[in-house]
Amino acid sequence: MPVHRYRRAEPQALLEPGTRTWLGRSPDRAPLWSSVDLRDGNQALAHPMDLRRKRKMFDLLVRLGFKDIEIGYPSASETEFEFVRQLVTGGRIPDDVTVSVFTPARPELIDRTFEAIRGTDRAVVHLCHATACLWREVVFRKTPSEVLALAQESAQHMVRLADHAGGDIRFEYSPETFNVTEPEFALEIANTVAEIVDATPERPLTLNLPSTVEMHAPNVFADQIEWMSRNLDRRNGIILSVHPHNDRGTAVAAAEFALAAGADRVEGTLFGNGERTGNVCLVTLALNLFSRGVDPQLDLSDIPAVRRAVEECNQMPVPDRHPYAGDLVFTAFSGTHQDAIAKGMVHLEDRAGAAGVPLGELPWDVPYLPVDPQDLGRSYEAVIRVNSQSGKGGIAHVLRTRWGIELPAGLRAEFGQVIQRVTDLSGKEVEPGQIWDVFRAEYGDTGDWAGFAAFASGGDPVEALLAEVRGCGVDAEVEQLVRDEGGPGSGAAHVCYAQLLVAHEPVWGAGLGATSHAAAVQAVLSALHRSGARAADGGSVPQLAGAREGVR
Ligand SMILES: CC(=O)SCCNC(=O)CCNC(=O)[C@H](O)C(C)(C)COP(=O)(O)OP(=O)(O)OC[C@H]1O[C@@H](n2cnc3c(N)ncnc32)[C@H](O)[C@@H]1OP(=O)(O)O
Ligand SMILES: CC(C)C(=O)C(=O)O
C-alpha cells in the first residue's frame, strides 16, 4: 500500500484543550432538518429523477414533516428548471414549507435561478462555491482574494436580484469544501457574505458548512464547527448548518458532534443517497434521536413505505444493513441473541399483562433491539430467523409467535437439536413454515403405536393407555405431562407435551387434539413411537421390538 502518498497531518488544533463545549453534550431536541434529496441526492444518480419521481420525492418529504427542502439546481437542466417552475407557480408548496434552489457563483446561472423562482412569495437561494486551496488553485485558478471577490460579487448580484423579485427571498451560502479550507479564510468569506446579505435574527443567513469530501475524524469536524460558531461576526443572524458527506463512513457521527458543537441545522438525504458514499442519512440521525427519547420532529412511523418510495425515486436499493430500514437490521440469526430477544419479548409481554396496558405503552427494553420495530411500522416476524447459528430459544420463539405453542424447556433443547441437524445438512436458513413441518414430522407421527389410542379410555386415558403398553412388555412411565391450549396457528384446541421414560431413557412426544385428553394420548403415542424408532435403529430400548410385534 503506497501510504507515503497520503498526508499524515491533521488540521491545526482550533480549540484550546479543555475548552471545547461539544464534548459530552447530548442532543435534547431535533435540529432544523433540510432535505437535499432533490439536489445533492439527485445529482449523484445514474438516472436523475424525472418530473414524476421528483414530485413523488417532494410529496414524501412534505408528508414526513420536512419544512426546509432544497428542490433543485434550476440552471442545470430543463427538467430541474421545469420542476421548480411547477412547484412555485402551481401553489404546491405548503405554507409551512420553505423551498430552496441551488446556484453556483456564475452570474448567468444565478440569473437563470432567479428566473426559475419568478413569482414565488418566498424561497431561499443557495449560493455555493469551493473555498479550499486545492479547488482555488486547480478548479478556479484563482488566488484567495479572487475567490473572496467571487463570493462578494455573487452575493451582491443575488441581493440585487432579490430586491427586484418581489417575494420574500432569503439566502443560503455554502463555502464548499469548508472542512479542508483554512479556517481563517472560511471565517472571512462567511463574514463577508453575511455582511452583504445583512444577516439579522429577523432575516437570518443560512451558513452551510459542508464536509464536501469527508477527510477527518468527526471530532475534528466538531472542533471546526465550534470554532466557527464562536467566531462568526453575526452569529445571531446566522442559522449554522452542516452538510456532512460520508467518505470515511462517519457522516452520522460528524453531524451529531457538530450539533453538540453549536450547529442548528443539518442538510442530508433519506437513507444517505448522494455523491460517492453519500450524504449524511437523515433517517438515521432522526431515529438516533428517537431511540434516545428525543422527538425527531419527523414522522418515520412507516419506514417500509418511506423506503419503498425512496427506492422508486432513486432507483437504488436500501442495503440490508442500513440502520433502522434495512431488511436485516431487526433480525437475529445467532442463538444467544435470539434467546435474549425472545426472553426480552416475553418479559415485556408479562409486564404489559401485569400492568393491564398494551405492550406499546411500556418503555422499550429488549436486548439487542435498540427500538421496537413496530414503532417504525415494521413487524416482529423477521426478528428471529433460523439457520445453523441459531439455538433452541429462537426456534421456540418461532413456534410460540407463529403457532402459539410454547415448548417446555426439555423439549426445546431436544427440538433445537433436530433443527440443528436440518440446518447443518442444508447449510441454509430454515423458514418458519419448514420449522413447523419438521416439528409435525418429528412429533406428529405415532407410527405403529397409532392403534393403541383405542386403549386410552376410562378415568385417566393416559394411565389406561400406559397400562396397556406395559402389558405388552414395554417399560414406560410418564416423567412429565405438560398440557396447554393449542395456539391460534396450531389448528387444534389443545396441545400436550409428554416426556416418557422408556426403559429408563427419556424421550419426548407432542400431540395436538380437540380435547386435552386427546392431545395427551397423542403426545404419549408420539413419545412411544420416537423411542421405538430409536430401538429400530439399534438404540437402547430392546423390549420395543417385541411390543411392536404385539401391536401388530
Ligand atoms: C458540491 C456540489 O455538489 S456543487 C453542485 C454540483 N452539481 C452539479 O454539478 C449538477 C448540475 N450541474 C450541471 O448541470 C452543470 O455543471 C452546469 C449546467 C451547471 C454547468 O455546466 P457547464 O457550463 O458545462 O460547466 P461545468 O459543469 O463543466 O463546470 C465547470 C466550470 O464551472 C466552474 N465552477 C465549478 N463550480 C463552480 C461554482 N460553484 N461556482 C462558480 N463556478 C464554478 C469551474 O471552475 C469551471 O469553470 P471553467 O470552465 O472556467 O474552468
Ligand atoms: C453545495 C454543497 C453544500 C455541497 O453539496 C457539498 O459541499 O457537498
From TrEMBL:
Reaction equation(s) it catalyzes: 3-methyl-2-oxobutanoate + acetyl-CoA + H2O = (2S)-2-isopropylmalate + CoA + H(+)
Pfam families: HMGL-like (PF00682), IPMS_D2 (PF22615)
EC class name: transferase
Keyword field contains Chaperone: no
Signal peptide: none
Listed GO biological process terms: carboxylic acid metabolic process
Molecular-function GO term, any one: 2-isopropylmalate synthase activity
Gene3D superfamilies in the cross-refs: 3.30.160.270, Aldolase class I
Pyruvate carboxyltransferase domain span: 31-304
Superkingdom of the organism of origin: Bacteria
Keywords: Transferase
Family: Belongs to the alpha-IPM synthase/homocitrate synthase family. LeuA type 2 subfamily.
Listed name of the protein: 2-isopropylmalate synthase
Species of provenance: Streptomyces purpureus
Lineage per the UniProt record: Bacteria, Bacillati, Actinomycetota, Actinomycetes, Kitasatosporales
